[in-house]
Amino acid sequence: MLLSGGLDSATAAAWARGAGFEVTALSVDYGQRQAAELQAARRVAASLGVRDHRVLRVDLRAIGGSALTADLEVPKDRPEIGADVPVTYVPARNTVFLALLAGLAEVVGARDLVLGVNAQDYSGYPDCRPEFLHAFAEVARLGTRFGAAGGRFEIHAPLLHLSKAGIVRLGTALGVDYAATLSCYDPPAPAVHCGACDACRLRRAGFAEAGVPDPTSYAR
Which sequence spans correspond to the domains of the chain? Predict the structure, then answer.
């Protein structure tokens, strides 16, 4: 599964563990400005007892085009979230990540791919939408040795139709330590959220709506 260290992927990892899967986690150091999320991914993997956690380096800063991989300003306090594709979209990121995940799955003998995309993601990010996941499953079938031999990868997106509040409720029931996670696009310190980017605002609202105490440290 893909493990970014954020709220969503931590919940998806807990779901996979609860569903009986033996989890192999892949985190990608892609040159993101929120590199502290890799530290969070290690914390989450440890807290969930994931024994096989791999960190792979892919330099998407060489492409740029995103506020997460180039010298562009991260939007703060936007009046509306999800109405368009924001500048925090990283070109082809999930296509690249899922390709790497499928390759790792072939090597370790897995057929199930898990990621933490959800409804509030795919309102603004095209590579989080259900049709993209269905299409990638077909790409993986056609372009891998496993697929050529008649196998088929199954992509699990257990949070796909959940709001952030629904994700928080699910993760809380599964015992996720959300204090270990990092969602912020522009963290002012390794374990501190800015409180104003889209990711922070959705995270804060999710805890509030779920009625769950928020363990997050916000700068504002």
Answer: 7-210
Query: Which of helix, strand or coil describes residue 202?
Result: helix
Global confidence as pTM? 0.95
- Give the list of residues 6+ apart from residue 173 with CB closer than 8 angstroms, or none: none
Contact 40, 204 (CB under 8 A): no
CA neighbours closer than 13 Å in the CB half-sphere of residue 34: 27
Query: CB atoms < 10 A from the CB of 109, how many?
Result: 8
Residues sharing a CB contact under 8 Å with residue 142, sequence separation 6 or more, in sequence order: none
Mean pLDDT along residues 106-125: 89
- Digit-coded pLDDT (tens) for 62-95: 999 999 999 999 999 988 776 788 999 999 999 9
CATH 3.40.50.620 fits 7-210, yes or no: yes
